[in-house]
Design brief:
This protein has one domain: Growth Hormone, Chain: A. Helix 1 crosses helix 6 and helix 3 packs antiparallel against helix 17. With about 425 residues, it is mostly helical. The chain is built from 18 helices and no strands.
């Protein structure tokens, strides 16, 4: 690990960039899912296929973008990723056809992953040093959640401001006109963060020299593949990421099952986003003071228990308090796992200088839910309308949480600290 730690504002810029790059393709759809479906004339299966196409492009981007992060400074790659993603936002604001929308999501699969993902993870490891990995990744994911929540809140305010009639009486055309302003404001924000990263997210020259390789060799790739941690993290991240993708439907659950209107449903999505920073900061601080790998196991246990509450169908429009408590349980488990799965790379003895290559290989399997989870969720929701479809989705979460818990337990047994 480098001796000189990067300054605090380096992590702040990483947090801003880390969520900003996903605002247009994902955060807006998470907070405004019912509005997005109406404005673009989509059903859940079609939106799921957009995410799936994104995932297929992202899959190759993880593989080839990982080594790129070991050859170039994170600042330059991250800034270019933000600017190119923002350009896609201008197309998104025209409410293109379904065919164009699929092309746009494939484009975002390249800009947000090939140029961005591995550099962000590597830069976070650099900031965390040898002793603060959980804090670094906890603050990163928690901070990203806060940025997403603030942008989501801003989006709701902009949407409400430009909606020309009462929410319950708004036509599709009126919702679309208001949502266009939400997209444009978000696009401007992403471009601005790109400028801040380019000019201010600089590493010390000595540190930068330590973490950059002139050439990635086949033997180095084989070295990474020989590490048990790499293979276990593939499974752990795959299971945890399914949970994260399923949080996209909470706003839709609020509308379909709890019978909320569009703005109330969007507020549920924003509530989730505000949960994420709290969980990230608390888990990051706690895990650094104890066993990071054990906290990862507990996160899967919590998400499993929350999933069972929803899957059994006991949550309906007459159980508002239980709905929010259960949502909080699922969110805590899912966001805690998300905070910690890259934080345990240090425990797994993955060399810092090969972080990009390792992240690329791990992500090749770990983020396959980008391909299959969207269509799977869409299928359950469309073929079993109402509460039944949502219950099927949460059974899916329970199964993946159980498998992730087993893999995390094995990782804990393999790499736990010797006392």
């Amino acid at each position: 690990m480098p001796q000189k730690k990067a300054p605090w504002y380096f992590l702040l810029l990483l947090i801003l960039a880390g969520e900003s790059v996903f605002i247009i393709p994902f955060v807006l759809a998470r907070v405004f899912r019912p509005t997005v479906l109406d404005a673009f004339g989509l059903d859940n299966v079609q939106l799921g296929f957009c995410f799936s196409i994104y995932g297929m492009v992202a899959l190759l981007s993880y593989l080839f973008g990982g080594p790129l992060a070991d050859k170039f400074p994170p600042r330059k790659l991250i800034a270019v990723a933000l600017w190119t993603t923002a350009l896609g936002g201008l197309v998104y604001a025209t409410f293109p056809s379904y065919t164009t929308l699929k092309i746009l999501y494939s484009y975002w699969g390249f800009t947000t992953i090939f140029l961005f993902w591995a550099p962000m993870i590597k830069a976070t490891r650099v900031w965390g040093g040898a002793t603060s990995q959980s804090k670094a990744f906890g603050f990163l994911d928690g901070g990203r959640g806060l940025v997403g929540a603030l942008v989501g809140t801003m989006g709701i305010l902009v949407f409400s401001l430009f909606l020309t009639s009462e929410i319950a009486e708004a036509t599709v055309g009126e919702s679309r006109a208001a949502f266009k302003y939400v997209i444009l404001v978000s696009t401007g924000f992403v471009a601005l963060v790109g400028l801040l990263v380019w000019f201010f997210m600089k590493l010390d020259a000595e540190v930068e020299k330590e973490i950059i390789l002139e050439k990635i060799t086949v033997s180095q790739v084989k070295e990474v593949l020989r590490l048990p941690a790499v293979w276990l993290l593939m499974v752990i991240i795959l299971c945890a990421y399914v949970g994260y993708k399923i949080t996209d439907i909470f706003s839709l659950y609020a509308e379909d099952v709890m019978l909320y209107n569009q703005v109330e449903a969007a507020q549920v999505g924003t509530f989730l986003l505000f949960t994420r920073p709290v969980v990230g900061v608390l888990i990051g601080l706690l895990a650094d003071r104890s066993e990071t790998t054990l906290w990862l196991v507990l996160s899967f246990v919590i998400s499993f228990l929350g999933a069972i509450l929803f899957a059994t169908g006991i949550i309906s429009d007459g159980t508002t308090a239980l709905f929010f408590i259960s949502t909080l349980i699922v969110a805590t488990g899912v966001y805690a796992a998300r905070c910690l799965y890259f934080a345990v790379m240090e425990n797994g003895q993955i060399p810092l200088v090969l972080t990009g290559t390792a992240v690329g290989l791990i992500s090749l399997v770990g983020y396959t839910p980008d391909i299959f989870s969207g269509p799977a969720i869409g299928y359950f929701l469309e073929h079993s309308p109402g509460a039944a479809g949502h219950q099927h989705v949460f059974w899916m979460l329970a199964v993946f949480s159980f498998m992730g818990g087993i893999a995390a337990w094995y990782y804990y047994r393999l790499y736990r600290k010797e006392h």
